[in-house]
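ok trying this again, last paste got cut off
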Amino acid sequence: MKIVRRAAGSAGLRVSALALACAVTAVACGENGAGDTGGKPTIGIVALNLSNPFFGTLEKATENAAKAKGWKVMKAEAKTPGDSATQVTAIENMIANKVKAIVVTPASATALNGVLKRAEDQGILVLAVNAPLKPDNTADATYATDNVEAGKLIGQWAKASAPAGPRVAMLDFDLSDAPSADRHKGFLAGYGIAASALTGKALTKGTEDTGQQEMENLLSAHPGINVVYTINEPTARGAHTAIKNKGRAGKVVLVSVDGACSGVQDVKDGVIGATAMQFPDKMGEKAVEAAAAYIKDGTKPEGGIVDSGTQLITDHPVKGLASQTSQWGLERCWGPK
């Protein structure tokens, strides 16, 4: 991707350019100006789809941790998956405003590489959250769920909880998406099943509607399915509706990943057998701590992907697999309750 390098101008011109970009590209701008205004450093937060409670929690935790340190915050949001153009424009504006660090939830694993390299060349610390960039050293560090481990946990639980004669199906999201691919791989490994041995599989959009639709299709083709992996809890909720409508409620083991409050409530209500909880607030807080060390004395994080934690949530524990109850999860979950 060709990056246009803007000629240096006055601070007033930079602020005017930023205001124009905000109006044109729907970049959400904070209350700050340049990266070290009044002796207070500014960090940039480049978010993804804040209407999703996971990303909303991640962005808010990052902002709160930064403001608790007395920093100023510059924010931007890509409103749809894959909207890298908005994120590129936002990062360019952050570079122009001389932020000290950028915390980004990437809309694409590779589309931001050029502009982030430019940021690093300007001495800006680049920190990815939730999903790694490719290559992962594009960021100085990445704070994310170990999605392979999350998939393994629910795969192990599903294996131990499966009825006799298991017939396993998977409801995925786009497998070019790193978290989706890792959860998929982890589930297969945890369950101990090859992809070729699955009874059925389908791609969803990670929504309740598409979860129901694809589960209905799978049950029509394979009515005996009795173990179902889902990419996230909205998909699981839709799958449960399809299962119930087919008169198979209580006969299908349903597992998922995320740990949203609504998903943990579904575990409590028996809609989902088990979910793997992630902690988006910890991702943001860890990123801010790394930024603090860099701002203080130039210390960079060690790099690579830093696991922000995963916890199996179920009210039906199995021997040899550590888990917590839905009540524990409801006390620590994220998103609306």
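PB: full thing came through this time. The first helix runs from residue 11 to 25.
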